[in-house]
Structures are given as C-alpha cells and as structure tokens.
Amino acid sequence: MPLFHDRPRLQMRTHTDPTTTNSANASDRSLPDNVAFRELDAEDLPGEPVLQDDASLEIAVRSLLSPTGHGRRENQDNFLTVDSLGQARLLWHEQETRLRLADWPAGHRRLAVLDGMGGHSHGREAAEKVIEGLLGLPAAADLAQLSEALDALHQRLYQEFHTAGLETGCTLVLLEIPHQGSAMLFHVGDSRLYAIDEHRVQCLTVDHVPATHLAMLGLLNGAQWFQQVHIQTSSQISQAFILGSTLGVPHLYAETIDANLYELHEGNLPLFLRGLGDRRILTLEPGRVYLIASDGLWHLSRPQAFIQRWPALLAQPQRPLEELMDELLAVLAETIHQQRSLPDDNCTVILVRKPLQTQCPPNRP
Hints:
CATH class of the largest domain: Alpha Beta
Distance between the termini: 40 Å
Largest sheet: 8 strands, antiparallel
Order of helices and strands: EEEEEEHHEEEEHHEEEEHHHE
Number of strands: 15
CATH architecture of the largest domain: 4-Layer Sandwich
Number of helices: 7
Strand order of the largest sheet: 1-5-4-3-6-7-8-13
Helix content: 10-25%
Shape: globular
Strand content: 15-25%
Number of domains: 2
Structural class: alpha+beta
CATH topology of the largest domain: Phosphatase 2c, domain 1
CATH superfamily of the largest domain: PPM-type phosphatase domain
C-alpha cells in the first residue's frame, strides 16, 4: 500500500464570503491555469449541491482582515480545510474559494493555517503559493513522507522566490488526519495549535522566535521563555516556510538565513519544551477543542487575559462550533478595544472537535 495516494484533481467554485473583507475581480479569483498541481481544468459548479461531510470531526473556520474593522488593509493570512469528501476551502486573492479534489481518499482530512510575513511585500502571495502546493500534495498516511514532501515544497518555493529576488515567507501549522489512526502535525513559524477542555488551555506547538533560539542555547529558563513568548508580544520570527531559518545557528546572532527548515525535536529542545516537537503524531481526544490560529488571535497587550477565557468560551460540547467561533471572535474584538491593542492584525482560526462517542453531533445552523 503506497504511503501517498495519487495526486488529487481539482474542480472549483469561488464565492464572496463575509468573513473576508477585501474583494477581488471575478476574473482574478480563479486559480491560475498553469499551476503544477492541476491535472484537470477547473470547472465552475453553479448550483451544484455541496456534499455532506461525515460527523467524525466538527470543524469551523474564519479568516478576518481585521477583528475590529480598524486593522490591516490586506489579509496576508490563509487557510486550507479539506474534508472527508475532498471538499476544500481556502482563500484566493482574499476571497474564500471552494474546490473539489476529485481523487481525494474518502475519510482523509487536511487542515492548515498560514500567516504571510507582515511588513514584507508579497506576504499574501507567499501564503497563496504554499496553499497551491498543499492542494497538489497527495494525501499522506505516514509522518516521514509528509515531512519529506513539505520540505521539498519549501525548497522549491525557496528557489522560486530567491530567484525572483523576493525575501518573504509564511507560517504553517498543518494537521493531516487519515481516515483511521492519529493525526500528523507539521509546524513552521509562530502560528499555533492549542488544545482546550473545561479545565485548561494547552499550547501544543513551540513558536519559532528568538526566545526559543535563546532557550535552545541555554540562555533562557522555562519561566523566562514563557514570559517572552506567551506574555509579551513580539513581531520577530526565526523561521518561516519559503524564507528559511536561523534556529540552527549555534550562537546568538545569525549572519545569514539557512535555506533549509530547522525541525525542533526531542534532541534539540530544552527539557521544559520536550514533547512539543514540530513534526509528530498527535491523537485527537474526544471532547477537546483543538484551535489552529495565526497570531492575530492573541496579538494583544495582555494575551493571557484573553487566552485563559477559552475554556469557558469553547468547552461547550452541546453547542455547535460555528456558534462558539462567533462568540470567540466577538470577545476578541471587545478585548482588543478594552486593552487598547489597536491596530489589530489579520486573524485566522480553525476549530476542530471530535465528538464524544456517546454524544450526538450538535445541530448545525
């Protein structure tokens, strides 16, 4: 049995979604005809009913240009959800686009959040190029093969952008979820994956930021690292998809950016971060809510004051995730104003929940 399934073929529809505030001309919203992953010409599917996904996972997704309406003018975030029927959602030119992956294996899922590097031109384009690559990436059943394919995608896009003289990149948090078995995590940058239950919030990824590099060099302890990463706010990043990495430098300052991604794992993480490697198997526990998000969700003066409210906001198994998502983002907008954290950032969130075996999935609106 091959570890990778055949490359999917695409059918496409586009539409304007109220969660993305910028608009694009209709002619610009289609994916380009010459992208490498496409094996069939895209076809608009007007009026075709959307097939119903199974209820083994409940998923909600939002991508906001600005939670308050007073932030950035361009949404450099992106996301990808591919459900168990091969139906994909993503942003293209800041508009939500739906695709059908004709050869996607039944029951397999892929979820990803990306954040184009703010302050860099072409940050949005970098995230979109990675989305293109993810659409062409066959469904993976093995972590090593998934990792190899994503490393290859990074190298290809690095060469493409480097040749064009563009120094930019994006974050990537990806969950690959086979029909049977545990999920696979692949993480680059400072977007995050959290697990939430009624008692606590647990961050399951390690930010690729200077404080993490300092901790790897033994220059920060656990409390100091947490203070710099999860209490304070910073726009600095030490690794990004397409751009490359400075995390592997064995001293404090890096003169150049390494073209290769530097994986954090048990062999190079400090003791207080062990178990949080970038690429690992992850069992999704029934009843917990998993949150994948760009840093716009916690880009606040006092981020923990908001994050510690998540159990009360999200650990409500009888309510649909769509409702919980709306409340989460409404509270975020209120908190931004209360903490005077304007201007706010792009914000993209995916919520995932595996229902308890004895629990019927909540009715969706």
